[in-house]
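Running low. Invent one:
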Amino acid sequence: MTDKTEKDTDILERVRTLCDEAEDYWQDNYKMGKDDRQFVTIDKEQWSEKDRKSREAANIPTLTFNVLRTYCKQQINSARLNRQQIKAEPVDDIADPAVAKIFNGLLRDTEITSGADNAYDAAVEGVVYGGIGFVRIHVDYVSPDSFQQEPKILTIHNPDSVFLDPLSKELDGSDARYVVIKTWLPRADIIDQYGEDAVSDFDDSTQNSDWLNHADKTVCVAEMFELQRKSKTLYLLVDGTTTYDEPKDPSLIENQRESYEEKCWWYKLTGSKVLENREFIVPMIPIIPVYGDVTWDGEKRYVYSMVHFAKDPQKLYNFWKSSEAQQILEGLRKQYLISVEASRDLTEWANPNNYQVLRYNQINDESNLPLAPPQQLPALTALNGILNAADGAKQSIEQILNMQPAAMGSDERGLSGKAIGMLQQRADVSHFHITDNLNKSLAQVGRVLIGIYQKAYSVQMVKRITGEDNKTERVQINAPAPMQQDGKQIDGIIDGILNNLTVGRYDIRMSTGPSFISQRQENKQALTELLQFVPQIGQVAPDLLLKAFDDGNMLEDIVERIKKSLDPRLTQEGEGDSQVQAVVQQYQQQMQQLQQALQQAQAQVEDKNAERQAKFEIEKLKAETTLAVAQINNVAKAELEELKGAINLILQHMQPPEEWLDTNSQNQSPPPEQQFHEEPPPGGFFTPEEAQQQMPDQQMLGQQAQQQNNAPNDGQFGIDAQNMAVDEQNSELDGFQGISEQ
């Protein structure tokens, strides 16, 4: 036996041991998750096989109203609408923000070219339905004739095939030491690729039964990623660099300590042979878990799906809805009460509901006596109770999931917008652990990808990056370049290298929100509304506005043409930025001045309206006073003294406040003394009879017409009607007028 054979044997033994340990640890959680997933996703799985067969044999409905699937889809689609974005940020003094921007472009480009959305969606579905999902990062050569490697994000559709290190406790799996993936492949395919030795134990039915399936002629192929540590001495050199290789010149060593070097090794094997093994490009496990609801009981870990605790209410809801259908069906059947003698030798009474005409024996053959006819029995039903029980079961589902109907798009007309938002927020918070755990896992995806970029893109090359607007550009990386150009500092230069990806530490931050397309649509609407109030924006930055409305057609050419016609100070970088800011500040000051002028104009308009209203009130008072005078002139002399006393009393109650009098006394003369003249004015006061005797007929008609036109309305009595007589009384009533003016 060669050394290689002995090594392969050791590898096989170690992988089998680790795989068995992981399978034993995850067995209960995977079984529970599989039951939950099948309960929601597979038809007729919400009834046990025993109950379904017994009910079908008795013609009892076994209906399934899969309410849980609707709630699951809501959570899954919510994650699709709010995509997570992986962003790199510089950590130490060697890292550069410009390089971080390059990393962000590489991350987005890898996600787009790999179809990472499919991998993320599959992981979320695994969490919602079964409690756990996985995302895989694979590194391969760009083409068969190339030595350039690039990463891809792959989808794991079957989370039950992945067995993570049982000692891993972090939600992103960053502390895992190994992971195993099992896949069942046809025996013939393995022989074609790796030869007969790869399945040499297939013919022996007693060997490796867990790795062989003789019925399906398939063989289990396992992949294992394992972190391996090797103790080494780490040296700190005088120039600040570190190395594991001891320098030949001891004077170059500033410090040293015992450390370790870590590598990630990848194995691919069957139950009888190691097919491939090599070092992974970075010392990190490229299989990242996404957890659902994780609960620890001591050292025992339970991973629950979103629907696990709502399965019993779902079963109860199906039972009551099936019972409702059964009761309705029974209510449609007619039952009869009939004697044995009346139904003797008549086959239709075995199943009366199949016949339209029913016969019965009217006379007893033995006694020749008439028999009672059949009687239809009333339908017995408990439909109301069943309906209430079904509604209660459905409410139990909503309470357990804490996702109310208002949060699922039901009738919301009776609720305010704030109440609807609170219900939706409550539903989101109830299952926020799914989104939060996904963010943690995708952050680990970003860390692994950045490590791969720093190893795979270590030489000078041109790479494509993708911006947040999904537009691509080509950038140079690891290219020698001067630190300055035209007296300006160049961004992204580290140790004379442009966009050096191989140095520096970068961390990952996650941001959750709508996609760039949704943000762009919102920005368009906001800019459209802003232009209506600030049209100067179109004069200062028309090229930027066109970029905001760019749909990828001909607007780029239009933007470039407009730039040529603009003031160069508005489009220059560096010093031009301060000039642009100055122009913007100038326009902002002009806008503030315009707003102040508008406020002053509005105040003046309000003053004009008040003045106009006062003039209107004065004219109205004059007209009403004229009517009051005409009325007083027709009052009998005997009633005048009573009227004077009433007016005097009213005017006493209408005295203005003392502070008014003090203020007005500075600019006005004191009011005239009040005098009441007993004598009537020239012409006198007449009774209606005297007036008719002394007036000519024509004058009498004119006065009657004037009285009809000036007759007061119903509202001109009391204080208002008496005050109307102030301005236009005759000379005998000047005293009242003076009081009114006061």
Remarks:
- The first strand starts at residue 83 and ends at 90.
- The chain has a mean pLDDT of 77.
